[in-house]
Every structure is written in C-alpha cells, then in structure tokens.
C-alpha cells in the first residue's frame, strides 16, 4: 500500500510537471520580414514587419536599434532616422512620455549608439504586427575594388525565438554590371535566392539570442555618391576569409580526414554490430517445440518447481503450493476442530514424517513442525498464524535457496554474459569518454573538456551500478525517467556546446549496450522446452472443461496435480473450483481430497488458510531483505517584450554559425 501511495504521488507530480511545462508562458515572433533598399549614397532604407505571438498579457513592445556594428566598425551607420511606426497597420503617434494602458503611441530616445522605440499597444489577441520604417545613413562602404554592405540584421540581444525570417535586399540597378557575392551568417537552417540586383535570405527556427548577419559584396558603381570610401583592395581577402570560415564551420576535419559526424557514425556502427554479435551468441533464445495443449506433467516435476520455471522467479505463494503438495503426498492433513476456548478453527496434522522429500519440501515440513508444541504432532491455524507472523527469515530464505537449486539441477544455470565482455565494454566506455574529451579541446574554446569527462563518466558509472543492482518496477521507471533523463539532457547540452553533439549517439548506444549485457540471462534449452510444455499444460487445465471431446482422467492423483497446478499457475478461481468439483466425482478419497472435504472445499482454504502462508512469505522476505540487502510586465522593461537590437550584435565573430548560403563568385 505504501509503495502504491509513493508511486501515485510521483505520477501526480510528473503529470503536474508536464502540465506546468505545457502551460509555460510563450512569447515568440512567428514572422519577421526586413526590406532593405540600398541607396546610391550608401544609406539603407529599411522597413520591418514583425508579427509577435504570445499567450501572456503584454502592454507593448520595445525595439532597440544599434548603429554601431561591433563585427566591423567600418560598416556602422552614422545615424538612424525613424520615419514611421505602425501597430496592426495603424499609425502610432510619437509622445515624449507615455504610461501603461496607453494605446497607439510610442516614445523614441537615443543613448549613445542605441535608439530605443517603446511602443504602447496592449495585446487584445494572441498576435500583433508592428512595422518600423527608418533610414540608416552612410552604411555601405566603397573600396577600390568592391562595395560592401555588412549588417547585423538580428542582434544577439533578441530575447525571443523567431519562426520565420525573411531579409530582402534591393541593391541599386547598376549593381548588375558586375559580380555580386552573398555571405550569410548565424543559422544552419536557411536559404537564399538572387534575381538581378534583388537578394532574398531566409532562415527558420531561430532561437533567442541567436544573431543573423550578412555580407554583400557588389560593384562600386552601385553607390557612386557614397562618402564612405576606403583606399584599399579587399575583395580577394574577403572571399578567402568567408570561404575559409564556411568550410571550417560547416564540417571541420578532426582526424584522418574525418569530420565529427563521420566519426560518430562509424563508432555507432561498430557498437551496433558488436551488440548484434553479442545478442546472436549470448542472448538469442533456443528454438523449441511449441504446444497448444500438453496433458502430461513435464518430467513429473513438483508443482512448485513448475511454477518457479514458468514465472522465472519464486512467487509469494510458493511456500503455500509446497504445503498443498505435502498434503497430497500424505505428509500433512487438515481437519476442522474446536480449540480449547470453544472457537471453531482448523488444525494441521502431521500424518507421515517418513516420506522421502526434496530438500525444499523438507524445509517447509520442518518449519511447520517447528511451530508444534513439544510432543505434539498438530497445531491449530490460529496458533500457526500467530507464530508465522513472528517467524524469522532463516528457513524461508533456505527454502528459496533449495528451490532455486532444485530448478538449476533440472534445467541448468541461467547463462550470463562473460565478465570479460563486460570488462571490455567498460574499458571501451572509458576510452570513448577520453576520446570525446580530447575532441572537445580541439573543437571548442570554452574550456568545458574536463566537465564533459567528469559528467559523462559519472553518468555512465553511477547509473550502470544502479541498473545492475535494481529490479525495474513502476516506481524505478518513473524515478529514472526524471533523474537519469536530466543527467542525459545535461550531457547533450555540454556536447552541443563543444560542437560534438553527434558524439552523444555512440556514447548513449554504448551505455545502453553495457546495461543490456549486464542484465542478460539466457535460459537453457531444457528450461525453454519445459516452459513451453507448461504453457501448453496451463492451456489444457484452463480449457479442459470446454473441450468438446474430453479424455477421461482415470487416476485420482492426476486431478490432484492438475488442481494444485491450477493454483500454482494462477488460473482464476472458477477454473480451480471446476477441478475441485471434478475430483469429487471419484469414488474413494485421497489425503488432499479428504482435507478439502473436511474444511469445506477450496474456497474456504483459499480465504482462511492460504493467507497465513502468504503473510509468512511476505514478512520473511521483508525481514530477509532488511537484514542483508507577475502583473502583465516582465523584467525591467515594464511588461514590454523585445529588448532587440540590430547593428551591434555582440562579440560573436569566432563563434557564429553560417546560414546555408554558399554563393561562391555569384555572378549575374
């Protein structure tokens, strides 16, 4: 009951956590379009149309525009001239000051190289489109051999994700007289097109704080009146720089001319092949004959032994099944009686102490005898129940040991993966973690290599020990989904930070393979065959009364075996009682039949006597185990979302990724 409550609480907390995750506030840009018109004097006329989506209450938005380009100060703008602001297509009016609750107004201020536009426009629906029209002056640079527009369209300060980004750049018509080069940076998920002097760049699924910039090189004749001129030649340098950076960023070669992705796939393939070989050699089950119905009792095995083979473990009622078997063998008998205080009860009588028994059966017999009073050969159930509750686990653990030994003597030991294979895989995991750590020092400059080694190693070691020691149930499954999953998420984040995300694939595959080989237990062919026979026998016992042509059972001993097996194999009470009633049709009696008759049948036995044995098994097992084993505003913006910038973009030169734009010597 206690475990069920704990599991219920964990499931409730898990569901609540998922609900909270799903219910988190959402604020994003679903569509962002930037139209840039490059003028002949080097100015850029820009119109932005930004469609926001949110499930929060927002009172407005902030747009910050930087004129200084920190990627290359030469490409900075002199000034920014704001011309128009619209909210859902309606003109907003500029005010010197405004307050929360105002609608359709904006304030405009300058601080250093930053221009801040705060739009007061409460969200009445989940979406809102804000349009900005402004001019950036003197942006394009004219060199001796080429003109350059290098602008950070989405700065790294944008604090919300962008689903779709479109940047349209319209160069002067005269730009078509020569070559145009296009280089986009910041995303691996983008494309571009060019028609004459019109360029369109697109990117998708841009995360918060991810910057997008582009460098456009075009003929100097396109900006004849530009005053930002530099007397030097840069075209060859820029082409070499951009193409070299692209090649290095896209797929750097690490060792033997292989990239991280190729290395990860090769190692993963090797691990998968090793796993298949281990399965075929050490875990693939033997083929055995299957049966729909099997009438005989395999090898005349005892019912408690068949139960242990069928379920692969000792069930909590195995002690009780063995006791029933001892009644059938004539060792014990049950009778109804009245105790010394006049209360009706049952008594267990030792009938024959000379029978030759299996070792595990001797343990059951001796345990019950130990409860007898000195000089007595019987005990009533009330006293037996009281003594069973206080019994130690010593004899029950011996019973389990002897029953397991009996099964192993028949079917052989369950085979496990050789320890040398586990050792080799463990050494391989250490080597793989060391290899990933070395790679992190060659691909990343943030110095997290030691952290990667420690975290990957700790996760592999600690959870391998846990998985080897525990038996999985609902509680542990929920626990490990929550805790082990969190550790693996951290591993993925660190590997991505070091640009080694693909190396997580061989790491987790090898981890799974190690857990697999630790837990492999291959049953012998004999055990597999006996289990298939038990399955057929169980179907026969279950369906016997429904078979159209039944064979007569002429021996009373056979129905007794079937009766006990029906209990051992956990068939429903209706089937068990059918066999009990069937046995009553025989003339003559057996020890089991007499005992059942004396106490009023199986139903009485299962509700009155059997619980005492269950209680003893559970208490003994437990004893054995315990002794050894905010308002509508956010942040400092007062409910305004944005905090965006363009122009500056932050210091990202060495770390920025490339848009999927690879236009080399693009010519008209």
| Main beta-sheet annotation | 8 strands, mixed
Class from helix and strand fractions: alpha+beta
Task: Please count the helical segments.
Answer: 17
Instruction: Count the E strands.
Output: 24
CATH superfamily placement of the domain at 31-233: tricorn interacting facor f3 domain
Determine the strand fraction and express it as a percent band. Answer: 15-25%
Task: Report Rg.
Answer: 40 Å
- CATH class term of the domain at 31-233: Mainly Beta
The assigned CATH architecture of the domain at 31-233 is Sandwich
Mean pLDDT: 79
| Fraction of residues in helix | 40-55%
Main attributes of the structure:
24 strands, elongated, 668 residues, single chain, alpha+beta, 43% helix, Immunoglobulin-like, disordered C terminus, five-stranded mixed sheet
